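ugh ok so i messed up the first submission bc i forgot one of the chains. this is the corrected input, ALL of the components this time, i swear. 641 residues overall. if the numbers dont match what u have on ur side tell me asap before i send this to the collaborators (the ones from the other lab, u know who)
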Amino acid sequence: MTWTLLLQHLANGVALGFVFGLVAIGYTLVYGVVKLVNFAHGDIFMMASFFVYYGIVLFSFPWWFSFVCAIFLTALLGISIEKVAYKPLRDAPRISSLCSAIGMSFLLENFATVVFGGRQKPFYQPQILSKTLDIGGVRIQLVTVVTILVSVAALLFLNYLVYRTRMGLAMRALAHDFDTARLMGINVDRTITFTFAVGSSLAAISAIFWALRYPQIWPFMGVFPGWRAFTAAIIGGIGSIKGAMTGGFLIGMISIMLVAFLPDLAGYRDAFIFMMLVLVLLFKPTGLFGEA
Amino acid sequence: MYKKRSFWLTVFSLVLFFLFIQYAQTHFDAYIIRIMNVAAIYVILGVSLNLINGFTGQFSLGHAGFMAIGAYTSALLYMSPELKAMNFFIKPLIWPLNEIQIPFLSALLAGGLLAACAGFLVGAPCMRVKGDYLAIVTYGFSEIIRVLFNNLQSITNGPLGLKGLPTYTNLWWSWGWAVFTVFFIKRLIDSSYGRALKAIRDNEEAAEAMGVNLFYHKTLAFVVGAFFAGIAGGLLGSLVMTIDPNAFNIMLTFQIVLIVLLGGLGSITGTVISGVMIAFLMEWLRIVETPMKIFGITIPGISGMRMLIFSLILMVAVLFFRHGILGDREFSWEALFSAFKKRHSTEGE
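and heres the new structure output, hopefully the right one now
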């Protein structure tokens, strides 16, 4: 194992960590505000990649415009899912909204199978992004660099949004105490809508980078990234943005390093990730950064 | 006196039911028999999941994992050594499994017991993990099982699965087990254990304060539920004649959750009805996937449409019929008679 190879794996791990981290933030935001595990988040991720695909194939948009459109459409999708499936059950027992979330995930997957077809589709690779950089012997794809840069930008923006704006303040207040926040005059519906929009557009961004990295899209592509990201959110402590990113990095690194260094055990990757989840839940149920 | 009457009525209807099963086994079409077998397996799965989700209030998504354990254990025990040698052509099966063969019933029981052990392993942490997190941990467990079975090639034959399993499952086996499951779980629910389970569901802290041993009762629910899921897995394996790890995925668990939801969380009667209904509905829905002609226009069959309609039903059930068919009510002879009597008296007036 040479240093350059190690650095190469490290760069890949970091990029994948950002992708998982962004999806994990979607879970964390929604859970923090509505206390709901949004099982459909992985499928929102999948829908985003199909929006990009159809933007390019059907409407022949330029790729960057298609990306932007997809992010907006995904945000809309997230908002409408909340309105249809979660809002009517807000006062129902938790088990009902949990079932509704599972049903929504199931529905989106089957909808995509019927409408888009079950076969894998190639994802458009822009010429510019498929270049390979050579930095002192370390060969890194440009996509990896762009993934890291855009993710950092998105994170900075999110940080501004949550900690510097009135909307962010409302979100944090709701996460802290739902009823008191409502008494203080916070518009609950609007804040929840906003939360879903932010979470879904982050999922769209990560879906685009995921699909640029693994350029095959199909209706069930969201299942595993979704679950790994959710695991990341729990490991980091659900409700915490910092925790979600840390968890994402951990999962991204494990995913890359296990395949790179212990290829014999690569098949057990998901078993390892879930084992880690169970251990974290058993010994520190609030996660690494979660509050009790 | 009422109790005695109910008892004899139950015995009588069971005898009638098994006469019907005997008639069905010998006279019905193979296709219908197959659906009836699936219906029985759904009933076992639904009732056993209802014990965990509906009566104890622990949201578990691990049923597919328990089924996989039951299906593989029993299949590896009842397959003949020659059949195993034929299946395991990439990596041979490890010793003692490659030489032994035991009768179907003991193989099923062994599968159920191993699944029950897994149920203990999953149920034990549920002291620390609650609500949504428990759903995640149990789902994680069933994924770990799937990943392990995909990779342990010298025991499970990996993703190739086991093929050509002998068909032992018939209506007697499947409905016999279904009736036994309903009987067993009904008795459990009506006992002091059952009252403790319901107390845990309604208010965990209060139950603990009243002296209910949380760990013991929660684990009990998981062990019993997992045992019957393992039995159902074994029956299913012998019915469809081929099993592979990826058949036991989250979709299967969702189907069972749907059965429980439609029937009503906490109602055995409702679960039995919805289990049979879903089995027939899923077959009937195959129509939408075949091409058909309406008013001279040919509509091509769309594959996947069946599952789309299925998931729409799930959403409608969750959003609008939150209590399912029966809520948490149960069938009883007394209720049936009093309903008749009421109608009689109103007609007489």
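quick check: The longest strand of chain A covers residues 132-135. that seems consistent at least. The two ends of chain A are 42 Å apart (CA to CA).
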